[in-house]
UniProtKB/TrEMBL annotation:
Organism of derivation: Streptomyces johnsoniae
Lineage, highest ranks first: Bacteria, Bacillati, Actinomycetota, Actinomycetes, Kitasatosporales
Alphabetical keyword list: ATP-binding, Kinase, Nucleotide-binding, Serine/threonine-protein kinase, Transferase
Keyword match Kinase: yes
Positions of the Histidine kinase/HSP90-like ATPase domain: 20-132
Protein name as it appears in the record: ATP-binding protein
Domain of life assignment: Bacteria
Length: 150
């Protein structure tokens, strides 16, 4: 595993890796994300959400993108953490409100409920899907608790 980019810009520290998403590598990238978030000063909630969210984003690349080469970016932006996966598909992600009896379709919905922000941006030849959360739990409560409840 090679770190492609390490940047330290005022109030921003960025790490990125080029990888090919595959089912057997998701656990390894979850560990990389956990180590990176902890190194950036993230608390256990930020580490847990980074692991969960990255699993969802990489799994979506595996399931929905023909060319699985992608770019993982983990950045500290002031008091926040941003995790981004850029892939080579222009198909926009769909956040569904799953019924209780459905077996799939919960991942992005759950991530949206747990993260401070979830979004995407399209560009020629692909898109970037990202989520953001506090590096350290503050007055907002636990990062891992869904918004609007416990």
């Amino acid at each position: 595993m090679t770190v492609v980019t390490v940047q330290g810009i005022a109030e921003r520290e960025v790490y990125s890796w080029r990888l090919t998403a595959c089912p057997r590598s998701v656990a390894r990238w979850r560990r990389v994300a956990a180590e990176t978030v902890a190194m950036l000063g993230g608390d256990q909630d930020a580490v847990a959400l980074a692991r969960l969210g990255l699993s969802e984003l990489l799994s979506n690349v595996v399931k929905h993108v023909a060319d699985r080469r992608c770019l993982l970016v983990i950045a500290a932006e002031g008091e926040n953490l941003r995790v981004t996966v850029q892939d080579r598909s222009v198909e926009v992600p769909a956040v569904m409100n799953p019924r209780t009896d459905e077996e799939c379709g919960r991942g992005l919905w759950l991530l949206r409920e747990m993260a401070k922000d979830l979004g995407y941006i399209c560009f020629p030849g692909g898109k970037a899907v990202w989520f953001r959360c506090p590096l350290v739990r503050g007055s907002e409560g636990s990062v891992c608790a869904p918004r609007g409840g416990e």
